[in-house]
Amino acid sequence: MKSLAIRLLVFFVLMTSMQACGQTGTPSQAGASTEAASTEAPPFSALSPAQFAERMKTDSQVVVVDVRTADECQQGIIPGALLLDFYQEEKMKQAMANWDPSRTYLVYCRSGGRSGQTLDLMKARGFKRVYHLEGGMNAWSRVGSPVTAP
């Protein structure tokens, strides 16, 4: 409930600032420059591609997790990502059981749906800092961020 209240507050602030500046578009489009400057997002929230990349660069202990299928990963992955197919539930649960819940995890999929669900699953399992890529690999690629072969 607290997370929802924080998200609503952030949305309200972004919408208010967009109206004050005469900008149009979605919060992720209009606030792109301020998002890149501020990497402090509340745990269990979505990060823009710029925030995601900044978090990867500034946190040497971050774990990047790709929850797409093997076929999707053949199109390229974010460098250094662990591959963990969302649809292989048992493998996912086994992997998470061996992860340190105090580390920071950055999760992504193709468009943001599965990574958002993974974020919720990790929160329920006691992880402390999990973020997912808003718009997924589609958004990452659209802004020209680096990809590599799996």
What's a quick, concise take on this entry?
Helices cover 48% and strands 13% of the residues. The protein is α/β, with parallel strands linked by helices and 150 residues long. It has 2 domains: 1-30; 35-142, 3-Layer(aba) Sandwich (Oxidized Rhodanese, domain 1).
Measured as a percent range, the helix fraction is 40-55%
* CATH classification, class level of the largest domain: Alpha Beta
Beta strand count: 5
CATH superfamily of the largest domain: Rhodanese-like domain
What general form does the structure show? Answer: globular
Arithmetic mean of pLDDT: 80
**Cα radius of gyration in angstroms:** 15 Å
CATH architecture level-2 label of the largest domain:
3-Layer(aba) Sandwich
**What is the strand content?**
5-15%
Q: Can you summarize the main beta sheet?
A: 5 strands, parallel
Strand numbers in spatial order across the main sheet: 1-5-4-2-3
Low-confidence stretches are: 3-39
Distance between the termini: 37 Å
Give, in order, the helices and strands: HHHEHEHEHEHEH
Number of domains: 2
How is the CATH topology of the largest domain named?
Oxidized Rhodanese, domain 1
Compute the number of helices. Answer: 8
Structural class: alpha/beta
